[in-house]
Amino acid sequence: MSTTTQRPGLRVVRDQEGSPYPKASLLLRGGARLVDVAIAWVLYQSTGPAGIVIALLYLLFADGMIQGQSPGKKLFGVKVVYLPNRQGARHRDSVLRNAPFGLIVILGMMPELGLKAFVAGIAVIGSIEAVKCLRDPDGLRLGDLWAQTQVVDGKVVAGQPQHSALSEPARAPARLKSTPELHSTTDVDPSRP
């Protein structure tokens, strides 16, 4: 008879809770991304030789500008939340989550292959990110996994998961205001503490 022993240190533990936030609309996220790319394009065109660097920096840092919202996300009402503390994304989180898109811009900076590398980067990296976002139940893409962030509806208060009205616990009734009749000195028993 053979006995199998399981070593306690070799278990795989996975967080079963997931995110407390609902998945944000992919249409709103896409619209916000288009606005941010358009802003980056305007920066690229209007700032001369340094334009590509300024556009790259904008794309990397944009989600940390307005408490987890880039101008595009603010316009479309979505927000990036850093999941460990449930607050708006910071600049560090923004750089981590947008690193795949930054790589696309860096590919476009290549001297000989600039446009070809840029288009190939959009095709490959963009496809990977889109498929990951579509398949994930919380709408997370690779950048979100790296930065521990999630794009949520901007109306969801940071730190508060969205609940339905039916799932809220019942509250205790409020206390009644004291009236002079209830606290008369003649009704009080001095033997009671």
Structure overview:
This protein is mainly alpha-helical and 193 residues long. It has 7 helices and 3 strands, in the order H-H-H-E-E-H-H-H-H-E. About 10% of the residues have low confidence. Helix content is 43%, strand content 6%. Strands 2-1-3 form a 3-stranded antiparallel sheet. It has one domain.
Helix/strand order, N-terminal first: HHHEEHHHHE
Our estimate of the beta-strand percent is 5-15%
Proportion of residues in helical segments: 40-55%
Strand ordering within the main sheet:
2-1-3
Radius of gyration: 26 Å
**Most strands sheet:** 3 strands, antiparallel
Structural class: mainly alpha
What count of structural domains?
A: 1
Which stretches of 5+ consecutive residues score pLDDT under 50? Answer: 9-16, 162-172
Question: What spatial form do the alpha-carbon principal axes imply?
Answer: elongated
Give the overall pLDDT as a whole number: 76
How large is the count of helical segments? 7
Total beta strand runs: 3
Question: What gap, in angstroms, lies between the N and C termini?
Answer: 71 Å
